[in-house]
User: What shape does this take?
Amino acid sequence: MNTLVEIKTAITRLSDDEASTLLSWLQERSEDDWDKQIKKDSEQGKLNKVLQRTKAHIAANRVKKLDEVLNNS
Assistant: This one.
């Protein structure tokens, strides 16, 4: 399989169990990629502004409990 079209075609031929296994694998890979990107961004200082702003909000008590935020959805 060399192309995305071939891969998509092959996926349509999978059994439900095989498709479920593939989906689980893709989700795990996506989560791993996310973790690697967050680590890289953190090491490069890309999250420093967000961290500083968050600490400032906490220090000024401009935060809400997570339950309050989730229940107001």
